[in-house]
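Marked as duplicate of an earlier ticket. Keeping the data here for the record.
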Amino acid sequence: MRIFLLRPLFTLLLAIMGICFCSRNLTLVNNGPGGTDIVGKVLTGEKAESGVIVQFQQTDIPSVPQTTQTDDSGFYQFTIDGSHSYLISYEKEYYKPYTIRFKSDTFENIDTFHAEIVKLEKIPVPVIHVPPAYDSIQGIVTLKWDPVTSGDQYYEINIFNSPNDTNKWSGQYLTASFFADTLFRDRLDTNNEITKRYRVKVTLPDGSSGGWSEPCPVTVKRPKVPPRPTIDTLINTYGTREVTVTYSFPQLWWIDSLFIYRSIKDFDSSVRVASLPIKSDRPMLGTTWTDIIRDFPLSIIDSFLQVTYSLQTKSIDSKKSEFSPAETITVIQYSIPQPAPPRYNTSDTGLITLNDSLVAFLIDPMPSPVSQDTLEYRLVSISSSRDSTGWFLNPRVIVAKFNESGTYHVSCQARSRCFPTLLSKISGSYSLSIDVAK
């Protein structure tokens, strides 16, 4: 096979021979015994494109691919020999790749063969909206740009950490057309002003990438007022005066302290109950602090406490954030007593077993420690797994269904009807053997 670039002199010679390069055709010229020349042209829009890597390979038999590039006029040429299936691929940086497949026997006895011309499509370059948004409370720069294509493309971000920095930081890969960068995060970065440059490019699902956008410079000053923290959860273990507060806040080196405030309804107003130093290695989410409520009379009404918490952060500039939204929890100073084990085979009801799989149990009722409240009961069976019945108000007779033969250990449990999450401990068990008829 012969591989060569089409030169202007060769172009003129082909023109004299009556073979013209149409802007819409890939031309294959039959050279008789010498083989067939494939002469093509690559355009971008209406402009000839040089430097396109063109690879030519037979696909019906093992073969070594041939590679060339388009010349200044966008032309390239290969020579083939014989009737085979072929693949031509076209690649250039910042352009979508393109391939052509054909069989040479379609033009075996003619002088020329025409196929669709190769028109490479340049991958669009994102345009960053300027100026980018800046959150002066949290120190967050947000870049946005219009999506350049539709589909599963992703975007890569370059960040330069100074105006003349050539050592870019890269590695953020995004599917959305925006990027948020939190500045002044690193404790080693004590500057009060930061200048960065950002640029972005798109990568298509086939792995081809477009060019980088124009750099977008950003100069911002370090915030003085810290961002507001958030209360995530409040948890109280029934029967105790401990409340676990789970909270979160941005992990920024210039946040110095976290303050926790508490108020108790009908007893006291909001007071600071904790001042916590913020460490650089403290996680941003899921941080907890446990409050033990001591400073109120034991005779407080009904042993119910409505406890409200709020948080505040302080910066190294002694500026305080806004208060977090207040969150309230009911601390219940009650505990449901553990019931006695359930009883079976009683004489006062006449119910022993209803059939081979249904068994009636009795549970001794208890008063609720909560005023104007009643208790509900359920059976809990422990065999290979733990199963339970529903909750019943009348504990005198609770019927349990057993689906398989075996030995069962049956217990019971009580709960408050007013506060369904207020549960007793599970009672001792009653053991019995069940033989379910097949």
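See parent ticket for discussion. The longest strand covers residues 304-315.
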